[in-house]
Amino acid sequence: MLVGIAVGAMQSFEFQIVLNAPLKTVFAIYVDTDRWRNRNLFGDIRWVQGTPWEEGSRLRIETRSPIPSTIDQVVQHFEPHRKVVYLSHVFGITCETQVRFTPVSEKETAIHVGMHLVGATSRALGFALEPAITKATKGFFEELKRDCEWAAREGSSQNTTET
After folding, report:
1. DSSP secondary-structure letter at 6?
2. CATH number of the domain within which 61 lies
3. pLDDT digits (tens, 9 = 90+) for 134-149
């Protein structure tokens, strides 16, 4: 379930999603950039500078929807199994995203996502960009939830058949 929280005049937004999967599983799938390449809204995803997931490293992400674009992301902060902060640059907008991972129980994880958009957001593309960014971001986390919950079910069913 996604829970949305509007902050300000759509320049910032937050939401939380709870996954039926352990923290280690969720985080491992989240940081596996190869897994997301050419899936859902993504095209190519590649690290273009630095060591993956180290502060200052850069990731280039091509999106296929809602409109084709290239997003440059710079990792600002990385705490394994806790928090990732990055800046994204696309269409003259800079977006700071904070993703926090919290264990709810041994088998559940909450992810809290906060985004703050800065820059000349306009309707030059024929639609408001902020709702498109919100929708794409939530779509990614819904797909992450499906993958993590499937992996958790597969892992627990393998554990029962092996014992």
Report:
1. E
2. 3.30.530.20
3. 888 888 999 999 999 9
Residue 39 is part of which domain span? 2-162
Residue 32 in contact with residue 42, Cβ under 8 Å? no
Contact 74, 97 (CB under 8 A): no
The confidence score (pLDDT) of residue 85 equals 98
- Residue 54's identity, in one-letter code, is E
Q: How many folded domains does the chain comprise?
A: 1
CA distance 33 to 40: 13
Helices 23-30 and 129-162: angle between axes, nearest 10 degrees: 130
151, HSE (Cβ side, Cα atoms, 13 Å): 20
CB atoms inside a 10 Å sphere around CB 69: 16
pTM: 0.83
Cβ atoms < 10 Å from Cβ of 151: 16
Answer positive or negative: Cα dihedral of 26, 32, 152, 137. Answer: positive
User: 63-97 pLDDT, tens per residue?
Assistant: 887 778 899 999 999 999 999 999 999 877 888 99
